[in-house]
Each structure stands twice: as structure tokens, then as C-alpha cells.
Design goal:
This protein is α/β, with parallel strands linked by helices and about 190 residues long. The protein contains five helices and ten strands, in the order αββαβαββββαβαββ. It is globular.
Length: about 190
Amino acid sequence: MKLLEDRIKEDGIVLDCEVLKVDRFLTHQIDAHLMHEIGQTFAQSFADLGITKVVTIEASGIAPALYAAEVLGVPMVFARKTKSLTMNEELLTSEVYSFTKQVTSTISISKRFLNHTDKVLIIDDFLANGQAAKGLVELCQQAGSDVVGIGIVIEKSFQTGRALLEAAGIPIKSLARIKGFVDGQVEFLSADA
Ligand code: 5GP
């Protein structure tokens, strides 16, 4: 997605540890117009699959997931990383190791919001080693829901996440695919590579 790649080139900051900081438009300050375009693109990519829910993980997956859900006309559900006092019902839970925070956390979604009739589109801000997406797939599987696709805003293709998810047989659409970081600059794979 050219608009996104241009924005990454303009505003993304490559950190030493193979992490891209995109807090000017995605992970802290959010560009609503860009999120609208991202939501449209995901919705078009996964149209006609009978999606009934968009599922993501807090916090930075919420914006792109919400815009996609609006276009698809379905609810968006986000997994929580910490348990809230108000979550006093039965939960779907999974363990996720965070690439950026380097801690394992238990993510959860209330059982009331996913069930065996749901066809789910999972959306997240980044794909690195695939642990967040895998945890979300596990939550959906516990509910008996069918995961029909995964939409990723920024994929770091030099890490192992795509291979992990492809092995699970789930179609993936990444809007920007990063080949690597060279001298602090981002290099992209071509859209269909
Ligand atoms: P994974 O679970 O695929 O290893 O990592 C994906 C998660 O880690 C995303 O939900 C995102 O929050 C975070 N993440 C991974 N790589 C990056 C990165 O380069 N930049 C930022 N801002 N977050 C990342």
C-alpha cells in the first residue's frame, strides 16, 4: 500500500534492535485518514468471506481493526493484555510473548463475544515472530470460531511470523512488507512478493 509505505519512509524511525517506531501515525498518535484507508483496504481484501467479527489485541491493533470492522459492518473485539476487575465472566485465554516488551502475558477475551458461528478476521499493527497473531488464533479456536484471514499493517518479513501463520493455513494480507533495515532506512518487498 503506497500511502502506508510513503508514511513509513517519512515518519518511521528505525531503532537499533530491528524495531520500527511508528508512533507518529500508528502506535501512539494515530492518523485517522490513514487508518480509514487501511480499514478500506483490509475490508476489500477479505470481502465475500462472510466475516462476522474483527479481532485484534490492545492497544495498537485497535485503530486499524476498528476501521476495517466499520467497512465490513461487523463488531470489533480486542483481546486484553491485563485482566480488568469488570471482567468477571468466563474468559478465553492464551499466553503471548511480546517481541517489543520481552515479557509473556496472558491475553483474554470474554467468551460472550466469540462463538462457533463466528468467521473471524484477525488484524494487528505489526507481524514480527507471529506470537501475538498466534495467541489470537488460539483464542478464536477455543471459542470454536473459524479464522478466515489475518490482516497485518506492517510485516517485518525478515522475522519468522509469516512462516508460522502460513503453516497454520491462514491467508495473510500485509499492507507493507519490510525486507530489512539498511543504514537506518527501511527496505520494502514488492507488494506481491
Ligand atoms: P510478534 O508477536 O509477531 O512477534 O510481534 C507483534 C507484536 O509486537 C505487535 O502486536 C506489536 O505490538 C509488537 N511489535 C513487533 N515488532 C514491532 C516493531 O518493529 N515496532 C513496533 N512498534 N511494534 C512491534
